Amino acid sequence: MNPPLQIKNLTIQYGDRLILENVSFTLQKGEFAYLIGRTGSGKTSLLRTIYGDLKPTKGEVWVGETEVTSLSPQKLPFLRRKLGIVFQDFQLLPYRTVYENVAFTLEVTGWKDRKAIRERVMEVLFQVGLSARKDAYPHELSGGEQQRTCIARALVGAPILLLADEPTGNLDPEVGREIMMLLHQIARWGTAVLVATHHHPYLEIFPAPAYQCSNQRLVPCA
Length: 222
What we know:
The chain is α/β, with parallel strands linked by helices.
């Protein structure tokens, strides 16, 4: 069985601008890793390539048994059932409750059994600490609660890989630490987690392997 994420000799280029060159990287089941680097260093471009939003110049990206770069646009939704994605801007549906935002992910991926949907959504809301807020709307939530809702939405389909792009960027430091602690817990539950961040202190507070995007390379941090 393939690991949740395997990148082989990947090069990303925009026109004449080289973003990343000859990147190889593997993330195992239950492994947590940081992707660090300054703005514009290629962190987001690498994540976009992993979830099929950006075609690389060359190389391969495997998510489990699926080779991403060769997928047609029609097959990308099937890839994303294996992935959970958390962004800096929460992107919640404003007129749906916490429960409805999370359930919507299952509905659009073909779940029909209302009882099964409810059981799965409530299980995930419990995991992220939002059971009591299931009927709240996004505007009624704190920033941390909104991000927890996004994480629940990313988790509800039981992905093998969770990608988070600056997930604490819009949060104050204390709430950001709580979110990072939750992401580490998710890895301990067995989901591979890759977090792009420019906030280096997290590496000391929550140690884990870290890889830096620098000079078009992906370099393990000492």
